Amino acid sequence: MTHAQSRLTFTASGGERLRGRLRVPGDKSISHRAVMFGALAEGETVIDGLLEGEDVLATLAAFRAMGVAAEGPDSGALRLAGAGLHGLGAPAAALDMGNSGTAMRLLCGLLAGQAFDTTLTGDASLTRRPMRRVTAPLAEMGALIETAEGGTAPLTVRGGRRLHGIDYALPVASAQIKSALLLAGLYAEGETRISEPAPCRDHTERMLAGFGYPVRREAGTVTLAGGGRLTATPVSVPADVSSAAFFLVAASITPGSDLILEHVGMNPTRTGVIEILRLMGADITAVREDVVGGEPVADLRVRHAPLHGIDVLARLVPLAIDEFPVLFVAAAAASGETRVTGAEELRVKESDRIAVMAEGLAALGADVTATPDGMIVRGGRGLTGGRVHAHGDHRVAMSFAVASLMARDAVVIDDCANVATSYPTFAAEARAVGLMLAEQWHTPEAT
Ligand code: S3P
Q1: If you measure from the C-alpha of residue 217 to the centroid of ligand 1, how many angstroms do you get, rounded to a whole number?
Q2: Best mutation site among 29, 33, 56, 176 for ligand 1, i.e. most ligand atoms within 8 A of its Cβ?
Q3: Which residue's alpha carbon is nearest to atom 11 within ligand 1?
Q4: What Rg, from alpha-carbon coordinates, does the chain have?
Q5: Residue 445 confidence (pLDDT)
Q6: Interval between CA 365 and ligand 1 midpoint (Å)
Q7: Stretches in the chain below the pLDDT threshold 50
Q8: Max CA-CA distance within the chain?
Q9: Rounded CA gap, 88 and 159, in Å?
Q10: Pocket of ligand 1, candidates 33, 102, 204: which has the most ligand atoms within 8 Å of its Cβ, to mutate?
Q11: Which residues contact 404 (CB under 8 A, 6 or more apart)?
Q12: Beta bridge pairs of residue 7
């Protein structure tokens, strides 16, 4: 059964305390990039720890449709026969990116440099999301990309264009825009230079270097020249800190909890969630620190601790951008007031995460005020429980499951099927460490 045909409801009934060890699935951002660079490299790339979530599988299916031979994925292992930067072929049909903004935006840049035309489509959420943020600077580089009215998908990326490098100041701290332009820059004449208004995730830069492509990084800028080549290299994908975040919050807010999260990616452009939780009083320690394939990793030990509200520093927002749904839950558990500002990007994620989280938390009895660029949460009153809607947003669904840990009654969460985009094993793993979580599938006729 696919998402188009089925719906998933979670019933989360809290839990006593969270205990044990868990290795959450591979990092989504790194997995997408590992597939892309492996497909474009010369030679065979072997990936381990790959996230087998629907978003990454959509990226992999796109490269298979463009002629890249791949074996797997099987338990996180994938073998890719790299086609080289100029070895992709025209796909027979439109490429369906499903729910994945990363896949669509990064591919947009990469496809702008190909000899053939491609159409990119996606689900209802993805076709509402803004794409001009990539198509406009790509047009400055010489690309031709047709969009639907309003600058949204479907996108038709015309091939056979001569691209040239540009010097571009990102209007938002977005790794997706940065990466799309760097991918186009591989095919451009001259240098592509991108500056970011604040640090955002740098997996593309790190992985380009890992695949032997010269990249220059200076304070707040990244530069590369077209015409180089990528050389296959093994990639080991760490566990996704964005998935670990649900358990960091779950254990922090549940008395008696003591949990170890293994081999979590600790790239400093991703660990804002840990810093924010620590500022709120969380007890998180990193042990067994290591570096795998250019990415830092550590085991994280998290124990229950009383949280208190804070003003979230603007500098931390891009470094925790995907973790705000669950951070709002932490804020509802914390005593006092938490204020998040400068986070308007949350409104254009898989859902409008400010509106959807404010609506759901209020339905569960929290005292929250949505603002144009964030939220004010007056926490520490506990939650009642009740029925909420995840609006097809994976991180919203998992965040409400965590919220059940401080609710008097069960939390019933509708529209959770997209949890499979980033964390297909969430429910089973959550149960394994002590969360009471039941899943119920419905066909549309039954709902
Ligand atoms: C991602 C970048 C972020 C993030 C998304 C993954 C990436 O988006 O929200 O989940 O892999 O580059 P933006 O770059 O739009 O902030």
Answers
A1: 20
A2: 176
A3: 29
A4: 21
A5: 62
A6: 31
A7: 1-2, 446-447
A8: 61
A9: 12
A10: 102
A11: 12, 13, 14, 15, 385, 410, 411, 435, 436, 437
A12: 442
Q: For 397-411, how does the pLDDT look when each residue is reduced to its tens digit (9 = 90+)?
A: 999 999 999 999 999
Query: 82 and 134 share a domain?
Result: yes
Burial of 329 (0-12, 13-18, 19+ CB in 10 A): buried
322 an active-site residue? yes
- Tell which of 182, 215, 235 closes a domain: 235
Q: 3-state class of 83 per DSSP?
A: strand
Other CB atoms within a 10 A radius of the CB of residue 371 amount to 14
Q: Are residues 254 and 397 in the same domain?
A: yes
Structure token digits, residue 325: 């749904």
What CA–CA distance (Å, rounded) separates 123 from 394? 14
Q: What pLDDT sits at residue 338?
A: 99
178 CA closest ligand 1 atom index: 14
- Residue 36 phi, psi (nearest 5): -65, -50
- Strands of the sheet containing 411-414, edge to edge, are 386-389, 411-414, 7-12, 437-442
* DSSP bridge pairs for 43: 82
Measuring from each residue's beta carbon to the nearest atom of ligand 1, which residues come in under 6 Å?
29, 102, 174-176, 179, 201, 321-322, 345
In angstroms, the Cα distances linking 99 to 4, 125, 154, 417 are 12, 6, 13, 11
Residues in contact with 8: Cβ distance below 8 Å, sequence separation at least 6, in sequence order: 415, 416, 417, 419, 439, 440, 441, 442
Residues 92 and 17 in one domain: no
pLDDT at 51: 98
Q: Are 45 and 282 in contact (CB under 8 A)?
A: no
Q: Which domain holds residue 389?
A: 3-26+238-446
Whether 189 and 243 share a structural domain: no
User: Do both 190 and 243 map to the same domain?
Assistant: no
Q: What DSSP string describes 218-238?
A: ETTEEEEESS---B---EEPP
pLDDT tens for 236-290 read: 999 999 999 999 999 999 999 999 999 999 999 999 999 999 999 999 999 999 9
Across the chain, how many H-helices and E-strands are there? Answer: 13, 23
Contacts of 219 (CB under 8 A, 6+ apart): none
Domain CATH code at residue 32: 3.65.10.10
Does one domain contain both 296 and 438?
yes
pLDDT of residue 430: 98
Pair 135, 196 in one domain? yes
Same domain, 351 and 272: yes
